[in-house]
Amino acid sequence: MIKVENLSKTFGKNEVLKNISTSINTGEVVSIIGPSGSGKSTLLRCINLLEKPTKGRVLVYDQDITDPKTNINKVREQIGMVFQHFHLFPHMTVLDNLTYAPMKVKGESRQVAEKKARELLSRVGLTEKENAYPNNLSGGQKQRVAIARALAMEPKLMLFDEPTSALDPEMVKEVLNVMKDLAQSGMTMAIVTHEMGFAKEVADRVLFLDDGVLLEEGKPEEFFNSPRTSRAKDFLEKVL
Ligand code: ADP
Ligand code: MG
């Protein structure tokens, strides 16, 4: 579904991604882990062109999104993104947060959009919150709304950038459980996370980034039990 070819990204003189090549297959769950500042968010953001690669290509279904001829908005409709800090629309109810883009971007009728939104709210356990405003929700509830809102666009791929890092500990699990259900439903997912237990359990593949370099890539059991590089060993000793 996604092919990353020799991707480099430079901010000023700072090369934060160095010649990264990898791919994400349909139905696959890929966890991206690594130290702070290693380029995880930048890599994720290059996949939907929130950051423009300096070198290399990103292909989404064989379409080069760095090609100026590609309609990036059409590509982005297929890619949902969930951020650490939720980014909900604060002046809209939960239901309106979910129906806004499907109506505005996809031209869905309110009736269709609301029906789908209610199904999604039920899926993330927030049926009773449809008329609430984001400020009146807990962090875990906000993040579940953010996931439901992304799903309302019926994406083919979901990108998560540290979705539980801003949450109080008791709310981490409710969000991870929603993500686990999503993974089990066959959604293709790329997840930047510091939740190693989750990565171990749910990911099909782990990417380890260090200083902009894709140092290791493999099955979670191999990576967590026998990392090949000393950088990965050091990292895992600190976080496990
Ligand atoms: P991570 O998500 O792994 O913590 P990031 O991808 O956020 O890492 O950042 C990688 C490096 O790129 C860091 O050194 C960061 O300061 C730098 N960086 C990220 N975004 C920008 C930006 N918009 N402008 C300049 N430097 C940036
Ligand atoms: Mg980051």
Automatic annotation (TrEMBL):
Pfam families: ABC_tran. GO terms for molecular function: ABC-type amino acid transporter activity; ATP binding; ATP hydrolysis activity. Keywords: ATP-binding, Nucleotide-binding, Transport. It comes from the Bacteria. Residues 2-236 form the ABC transporter domain. InterPro entries: AAA+_ATPase (IPR003593), ABC_ATPase_HisP-typ (IPR030679), ABC_transporter-like_ATP-bd (IPR003439), ABC_transporter-like_CS (IPR017871), MetN_ABC_transporter-like (IPR050086), P-loop_NTPase (IPR027417). PANTHER family: AMINO ACID IMPORT ATP-BINDING PROTEIN, ARGININE TRANSPORT ATP-BINDING PROTEIN ARTM. This is Peptide ABC transporter ATP-binding protein. It comes from Heyndrickxia shackletonii.
